[in-house]
User: Fold this.
Amino acid sequence: MSPRTTAPEDAYTAEPYLPDRGGLPALREAAAGCRGCPLHRDATQTVFGEGTAKARVMLVGEQPGDQEDRQGKPFVGPAGKLLHRALAEAGIDPAETYVTNAVKHFKFTWDEPRKRRIHKAPTLREAAACGPWLAAELAAVEPELVVVLGATAGKALLGSSFRVTQVRGTVLEEEIHGHAERLVPTVHPSSVLRADDREAAYQGLVSDLEVAARLL
Assistant:
């Protein structure tokens, strides 16, 4: 059998695409060409993390959405705007954070008749394929605190048994990709936008972020 019988994305790992050296700029440039899983086929572009390399707080979400995929930047859509407002209200300057996602390509389905792209949750395998990028971002930034936004991010960082409803607003200390990290899990801001009682859901998010702010 030929050693190259499958496409590179069928290996489900970003590891071969990571640069040997360089900080966040080198990582971002390399990630633009990542073919580590099939999600790159339909997405417009890789959406890498953004923010200061000296950020005290790293926020990790699920994946880019429609607006993020079009603009190439994380958290620029409605959920991102809500997150920035909640961070400021909780006492965390959004300009001093680093924001990224567990998965770097937008996964979606089309509604009928192909007028709108509908978010589709990434699988654990897809999140694991992107794991080397997230590990490299953590190593480059070395944040004091990681805020985990939602279930997909939590499972990518902490394993498949993670349940955001059980640990949101608490302080966890875990070894992540070989480094001791402090983490505060909370819901993804998109869930606030979908909530029946949006104001109560928003205040819950702010309350969790205030836990994070008190640690800094």
Notes: Confidence is low (pLDDT under 50) at residues 1-5.
